[in-house]
Structure formats: C-alpha cells, structure tokens
Design a protein that fits this description.
The protein is of the alpha/beta class. The protein folds into two domains: 3-242, 3-Layer(aba) Sandwich (Rossmann fold), CATH 3.40.50; 249-398, Rossmann fold, CATH 3.40.50. It is built from 14 helices and 14 strands. Strands 3-4-2-1-5-6-7-8 form an eight-stranded mixed β-sheet, with helices on both faces. The chain has a three-stranded parallel β-sheet with strand order 9-10-11, sandwiched between helices. The longest helix has 16 residues, at 321-336.
C-alpha cells in the first residue's frame, strides 16, 4: 500500500480496495493527483456529480434520463476547464461504456461502479447513492477536490457526502424540484401519502433534495420559481444564485451546418416537417404530439399537404417498459387520425444533427405534462419565435417566418 493510500484510508475512512481501484484509474488515464491541504481562495479542482443517465461528449440526445441536464453539466465543466481549472465529472458506470473518458486536457469523466452493470432509471437510483458517494469521496480525495457540485437529487446527495467528508464547499443544482413536478401532476402536496408512488418516487426524491440543500453552501437555481417554491412549501430559504440554462451553440449555428445529406437520408425537405425531440417518457406526453399533428391535419388538410411529423428520441439499446408504453400510445394516435408515412420515427441523434433537424423544421411541438414550456422549446428559441398550442398542454416554437403553415 502506498503512503498516499494509507493516509487517505485513515483520514477519510475509505476502504483500501476502493482507493486502490481509483488510484489505478488515475494512473492509467493520466489524471493528476493532488495532496494539498488548506482552503484556497479559488477552487482550482472541481468535482461535478451528475450520476444518472447516459454520458459522452456530447451526451446522446433523447435517450432516457439524458438531455438538458447532462449537456448543461458538460458545457459548464468545459467553460471551467477553458479557464484553466481541472474538472472531473462523476457519472454511474454501466455497460458498454468505459470507466474513464477524457474530454479536454484538464476535463475527465469518471464512471463510478454501483449496483451492477445495467442502466438504472433516475427514479430507482436512490438506493445506489451510498455506494456512488463512497466512490466519489475516493475520487475527490485522490484528486484533491476543492469544491463539489451536485446535480439533481442523486448527484446533490453524492456531492454533499464529498463535501462533509473532505471539508470542502458544496454547491447544489436541483435542475428541477420534486415538489414542483408533483404539483404539476395534480398531487396533493399536503397529503404525503399521495407521494408514495412507484413511478416517480417523489417522497424519496424530496428527502434527498431537502437534505442536500440544507447541507450545501449555495444553491444554483435554474429558474426563479425554484427558491420561491422552497419558501412557499417548506418555509425555508437557502443562499442561491439563478443561472438559467440556455441552448447549446449548435442551435445558434444550425443555419451554417451542412444539412442536405442529413435531410435526404430521412426523406425530408427543409420547412416540410414538424418536429418533437426529447426523451420518450410518459411525462413528455409524446402521443399528445401526434394528437396535435392529427388535429392540425384535420383542421387544415390542404395547408399541411405533404408535411410530416418527425419524432426523435428513445433508448440507444433495448427500450424500457415505459418507452414501449409511449410507443403504443403513438401508434394509437396514428391509427385514430389515420396517419401513416406522415409520421417519421427517428432514433436518438447527435446534438449537431438535432440542431439541423430543428432549424429546418416548420416548428417544434411539445405537449409534456410537466413544465409545459419545456427545454426542447427553449433550445428552439434561438431559431425562431414561440407560439402556444392552445388546446393541449405544451408549446410550439416556429421557424422564424412569423406565420403558421395554415
């Protein structure tokens, strides 16, 4: 056992085997060790815990539990790395992905082992948090992390454990709050029994959120409604900043990106289709997108002659049970409105391809049941003005012409 491992074993109450595992990963991938102590005036080595979903550079778009949050974490981490800071992003490992990836000279992704080698939904990841946190503490100790930033309920809890064990500042970024999601679903927020559901596990999520926020030094809220909701429902206020996420640069540059080959591959023409992209979860109400399209075709068949609906997203591998139910709902709406080749189903796409598909669409349709404005719509904002969808929850974002197709 090296002197460093023996020291960390005693100081942070970490197992020798765990320290040796991550010590080996650091050496194999050229991740620098740091054994400096003391509190710096500026954090130069930062840990970003975002432990659910798929990961990559960029993260795949439209797959389960992967989207705006992972993209946000990656972009913020890259911005810090560009400023000369060293950053490690912590995710959960599952097959077939490597344990470590290097995104920049001073930016790494480390996947922590916890709970086997298969994908786990974010609603079911909470029992794995203690194991994830133990791995995170080992990584943080070897890295000499000077700040820990946690994302979503699971990542915030992991960051909190790191902060408490190493004595470093903790920043909590909820991305969304369980209480706001539950309210939008019609749950009785003052009847805890309604929170005990198997689909969303709001009661567990709420406990993780509140524990993390109480232990953190700072909250970064993605919208002003988050601190307002915490004050309204729990009577508590935490030190916070508001840092709204925005669209990635691909969505601002889409006009100049190559598009002919991509559109031809799927038999599409510019401004000849409507689009939805995102996760195929029941909360997103993707069958509702098909319903909106069907009603539009019924109301203005001549104006929409030849116009298609493109649905983009879904698992990279075997679909989940939830995704199968969503696909069945899509089929039912297609049958109801007698839609055949007018609806095109595409798998998850790289962000650059997604930006191109969005730019050349007539407009984006979103009918999700939670946060109806939706981040898909907001990613479309750089490319045109939004319009509301008046009859069903959701939104439409136009192509910039200022006109509806009818």
């Amino acid at each position: 056992m090296s002197k460093e491992i023996e020291l960390f074993n005693e100081k942070f109450d970490l197992s020798q085997g765990l320290l040796e595992e991550y010590h080996t990963l650091f050496k194999e991938h050229g991740i620098p060790f740091s054994f400096c102590e003391g509190t710096p005036s500026r954090a130069e080595r930062i840990l970003m815990a975002s432990t659910h979903g798929y990961w990559g550079d960029p993260p795949p778009a439209g797959v389960p539990d992967t989207g705006g949050q992972t993209y946000y974490v990656l972009k913020v981490s890259k911005a810090w790395a560009k400023k000369g800071r060293q950053v490690i992003i912590l995710a959960r490992w599952f097959e077939p992905y490597p344990r470590v990836e290097r995104f920049k000279d001073n930016l790494w992704l480390i996947r922590l082992r916890a709970g086997g080698d298969q994908f786990v939904r974010k609603e079911e990841i909470y029992p794995l948090v203690p194991e994830l946190a133990e791995g995170a503490v080992a990584v943080a100790a070897l890295f000499g992390a000077q700040a820990a930033v946690g994302h979503y309920a699971d990542g915030m809890a992991v960051a909190l454990e790191v902060g408490e064990r190493l004595g470093i500042p903790v920043v909590a970024v909820p991305h969304s709050l369980g209480v706001r999601k539950a309210a939008s679903l019609g749950y009785d927020l003052y009847d805890p029994e309604t929170w005990f559901d198997e689909r969303y596990n709001f009661w567990i999520r709420e406990a993780f959120e509140l524990a993390s926020l109480r232990g953190a030094n700072l909250e970064i809220a993605n919208a002003p409604q988050e601190p307002e909701a915490l004050k309204e429902y729990y009577g508590v206020e935490f030190p916070h900043l508001i840092m709204p996420p925005g669209a990635g640069e691909e969505f601002f540059e889409a006009e100049s990106l190559p598009h002919r080959e991509l559109l031809a591959r799927y038999g599409l023409r510019s401004k000849g289709y409507l689009i939805y992209f995102g996760r195929f979860s029941e909360a997103k109400n993707v069958p509702g997108v098909v319903k909106v399209f069907g009603e539009m075709k019924r109301m203005a068949p001549e104006a929409l002659e030849g116009v298609k609906l493109v649905l983009v997203g879904g698992s990279l591998r075997e679909p989940s049970d939830e995704e199968r139910r969503v696909e069945e709902g899509i089929k039912e709406e297609m049958e109801r409105y007698r839609l055949g080749e007018e609806v095109l189903r595409l798998p998850s796409q790289p962000w650059s391809a997604l930006a191109v598909l969005a730019y050349h669409s007539l407009f984006f349709i979103g009918t999700q049941r939670l946060e109806p404005s939706g981040w898909g719509r907001r990613r479309r904002w750089p490319q045109g003005p939004p319009w509301p969808s008046p009859r069903w929850p959701g939104s439409c974002a136009g192509s910039g012409t200022g006109r509806m197709p009818w």
